[in-house]
């Protein structure tokens, strides 16, 4: 920070979202905060929507959460449906990544393997109910921020968001005291609001957050200085408001974008001489010229995005924005392609959205197509202005790692590898190198490059071992074992997983991985004994029951398999429903089994074992042609692929045997 020796007095938080601890600096949204709080407590589902940069995250963290009385409400931490972690994903039981990320946010101290085995309904069943001093149950308040992450990115993840919403509605139906607040960008809000499952639960819980009206913006400027020894002259604050709200000729020009207000206030504070405590109009003109501040912000942002994604070609990025998003001195929408938008990769577009230069817009043609436009009309002028000299800092190792994680969520494995290796080249920290190697292992595993995944996991394990992180080493060895299992190296996989158990003896997930590996290698008895020991310790271990049910099913012990399926409760996971359908078919319940398979087929298009179960159901129904087609699809599936012993079964079925 420039111009200030006392950072504790800094009243503005810059361009990041306000956090819970910043609530004392958060002004201008009191009405909205109280209204959202009331809606949240009054409705099972409340949807808070608004454009990118409107301040939804800040409102939730610093405005709404402080209003809630912990003695009268059971308040979970703000949740997210995507998460980044050094924990190797492939060491976890098969799971829904959105559910796992959310539960990790809500219960950050809980064991990852345990969270990965839970549905939302099971999570809340395990959470002890609370009562107020009169003995009445208190409301459970759960929030999901940036819920648009459910619907963006890799098409392979689409089944997961369907399953996620199904779980959410089920959890709400089972717990009348549960209240869920969903914060989501405007362009993706329709995916929630038009969903019939949500409509059935939702009543009046809808709030749209817009720009700041001038009186609220004045509070956001003046309020953070309260108690700091600094103050604004009334005329100075009004000058900022006038400059930010434009000339007032158009009604929409009076509203003030929160991002632009934060930019200008931060520039003013950082530039103000240390001896100035009362800010006048002269100070505003000299140190916080709105146009100059916003032009510099736009120049800096374009340069940073170009640095991160276009090898620093700032001129190309600026020309692309002008050529495509500006027409006749007004902003114009541009259609988003599958991988490119007007000749620029979509990861660049996503970065410009994150930096509040572009904003998504619902289909302008009346369909569900995706369009983008400049986030504010004033950006037309700012982008058309002559670019100033901007020096951007060299990328830190964290920046390419962040973009790599985003690429992996979108299924862009090549970009995820490229950016993660860039991060690796930029760090001298052995701890961060370990995390990046673990991440590269996950990238390789999901791209079915299992030998490469093993190399990365073992390198990460060696680095973490130096730091004494025994638990992470154990789980990396388990992930390596799963990769070896996918390669058919069953004996070495068992060795890796047994080594993992020595380091994390209490991790049920690793023991269940050992059971799967025994079964994949043809050691059914060892598999069942391992699962029995897990269930002796935890009779309701969902992953263990699910694994034992499937193994018993393949051993023709259908009645026993159905007992374990029955103990799972309501089955939401598509691949487990498919296995259950096969069990029903084996007992002659063909209509029920085929109905079940039809219900899950849309969500298992690339899930090898689930497709094989669908083939087995059709075989039981004597539809050998349909069974052969599904078996062939199962052999081609990659998310996940068939294990070797089931691949041989699929080959026989595809050949009509």
Automatic annotation (TrEMBL):
Native source species: Herbidospora solisilvae
Protein name (Swiss-Prot/TrEMBL): Tetratricopeptide repeat protein
InterPro entries according to UniProt: nSTAND1, P-loop_NTPase, TPR-like_helical_dom_sf
Signal peptide annotation: none
Origin superkingdom: Bacteria
Domain Novel STAND NTPase: 11-381
Gene3D superfamilies: P-loop containing nucleotide triphosphate hydrolases (3.40.50.300), Tetratricopeptide repeat domain (1.25.40.10)
């Amino acid at each position: 920070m420039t111009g200030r020796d006392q950072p504790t007095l800094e009243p503005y938080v810059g361009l990041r979202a306000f956090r819970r601890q910043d609530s004392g600096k958060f002004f201008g949204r009191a009405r909205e905060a109280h209204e959202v709080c009331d809606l949240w407590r009054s409705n099972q589902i409340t949807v808070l929507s608004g454009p990118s940069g409107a301040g939804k995250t800040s409102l939730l963290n610093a405005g709404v959460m402080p209003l809630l009385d912990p003695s009268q409400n059971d308040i979970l931490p703000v949740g997210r449906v995507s998460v980044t972690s050094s924990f190797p994903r492939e060491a976890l039981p098969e799971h829904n990544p959105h559910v796992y990320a959310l539960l990790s946010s809500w219960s950050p101290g809980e064991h990852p393997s345990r969270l990965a085995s839970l549905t939302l309904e099971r999570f809340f069943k395990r959470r002890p109910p609370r009562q107020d001093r009169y003995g009445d149950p208190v409301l459970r308040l759960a929030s999901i921020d940036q819920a648009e992450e459910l619907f963006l990115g890799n098409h392979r993840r689409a089944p997961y968001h369907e399953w996620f919403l199904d779980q959410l509605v089920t959890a709400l139906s089972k717990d009348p005291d549960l209240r869920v607040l969903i914060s989501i960008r405007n362009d993706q809000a329709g995916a929630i609001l038009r969903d019939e499952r949500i409509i059935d639960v939702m009543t009046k819980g809808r709030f749209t957050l817009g720009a700041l009206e001038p009186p609220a913006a004045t509070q956001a400027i003046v309020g953070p200085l309260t108690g700091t020894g600094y103050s604004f002259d009334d005329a100075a604050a009004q000058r900022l408001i006038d400059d930010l709200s434009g000339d007032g000729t158009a009604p929409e020009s009076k509203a003030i974008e929160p991002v632009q207000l934060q930019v200008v206030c931060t520039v003013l504070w950082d530039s103000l001489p240390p001896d100035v405590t009362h800010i006048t109009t002269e100070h505003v003109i000299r140190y916080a010229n709105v146009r100059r501040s916003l032009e510099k912000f736009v120049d800096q942002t374009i340069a940073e995005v170009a640095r991160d994604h276009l090898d620093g070609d700032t001129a190309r990025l600026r020309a692309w924005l002008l050529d495509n998003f500006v027409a006749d001195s007004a902003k114009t929408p541009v259609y988003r392609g599958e991988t490119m938008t007007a000749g620029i990769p979509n990861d660049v577009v996503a970065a410009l959205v994150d930096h509040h230069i572009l904003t998504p817009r619902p289909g302008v043609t009346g369909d569900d197509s995706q369009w983008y436009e400049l986030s504010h009309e004033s950006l037309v002028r700012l982008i058309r202005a002559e670019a100033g000299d901007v020096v951007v800092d060299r990328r830190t190792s964290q920046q390419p790692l962040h973009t790599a994680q985003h690429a992996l969520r979108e299924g862009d494995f090549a970009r995820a590898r490229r950016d993660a290796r860039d991060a690796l080249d930029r760090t001298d920290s052995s701890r961060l190198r370990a995390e990046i190697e673990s991440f590269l292992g996950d990238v390789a595993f999901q791209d079915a490059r299992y030998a490469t995944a093993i190399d990365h996991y073992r390198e990460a394990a060696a680095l973490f071992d130096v730091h004494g992180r025994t638990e992470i080493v154990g789980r990396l060895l388990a992930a390596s074992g799963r990769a070896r299992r996918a390669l058919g190296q069953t004996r070495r996989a068992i060795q890796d997983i047994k080594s993992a158990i020595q380091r994390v003896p209490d991790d049920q997930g690793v023991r269940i991985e050992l059971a799967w590996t025994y079964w994949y290698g043809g050691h059914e008895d060892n598999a069942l004994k391992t699962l029995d020991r897990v269930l002796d310790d935890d009779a309701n271990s969902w992953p263990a029951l699910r694994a034992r049910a499937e193994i018993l099913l393949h051993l023709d012990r259908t009645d026993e398999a159905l007992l374990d399926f029955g103990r799972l409760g309501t089955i939401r996971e598509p691949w487990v429903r498919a296995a259950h359908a096969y069990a029903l078919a084996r007992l002659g319940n063909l209509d029920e089994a085929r109905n079940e398979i039809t219900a899950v087929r849309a969500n298992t298009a690339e899930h090898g074992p689930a497709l094989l179960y669908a083939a087995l159901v059709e075989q039981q129904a004597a539809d050998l042609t349909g069974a052969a087609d599904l078996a062939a699809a199962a052999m081609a599936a990659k998310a996940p692929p068939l294990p070797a012993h089931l691949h041989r079964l699929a080959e026989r079925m595809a050949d009509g045997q």
